[in-house]
């Protein structure tokens, strides 16, 4: 997430240099607990976007070439979630592997 901070600080520097040319107020936000920690919810509850007429978010996307910015209208990457599951096996003996269920093979297939 250092890249996110570097990009927002870079944007702040560029926008500050053109501040007189901007038609309105620009607010830049660093979101705490961005992945699964609920940071956005707390920021909204605290009024971080109160009065906003437009909002743009940013996230790194490693499959894009360096220097390329991609965008589209509407929501994109607007949520994350976490889940837990168990991969269960059944032990056996090396002489009878066909009677065992190897959870490592199942886990590798999931990854």
UniProtKB/TrEMBL annotation:
Pfam families: Peptidase_M20
Annotated GO CC locations: endoplasmic reticulum
SUPFAM superfamilies on file: Zn-dependent exopeptidases
Protein name: Peptidase M20 dimerisation domain-containing protein
Organism the protein comes from: Chlamydomonas euryale
One Gene Ontology term of the molecular function aspect: IAA-Ala conjugate hydrolase activity
GO biological process: auxin metabolic process
């Amino acid at each position: 997430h250092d890249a996110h901070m570097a990009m927002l600080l870079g944007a702040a520097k560029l926008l500050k240099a053109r501040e007189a040319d901007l038609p309105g107020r620009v607010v830049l936000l660093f979101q705490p607990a961005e992945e699964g920690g609920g940071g956005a919810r707390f920021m909204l509850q605290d009024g971080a976007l109160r009065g906003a007429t437009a909002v743009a978010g940013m996230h790194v996307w490693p499959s894009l070439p360096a220097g390329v910015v991609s965008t589209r209208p509407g929501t994109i990457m607007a949520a994350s979630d976490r889940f837990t599951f168990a991969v269960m096996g059944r032990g056996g003996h090396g002489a009878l592997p066909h009677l065992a269920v190897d959870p490592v093979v199942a886990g590798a297939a999931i990854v």
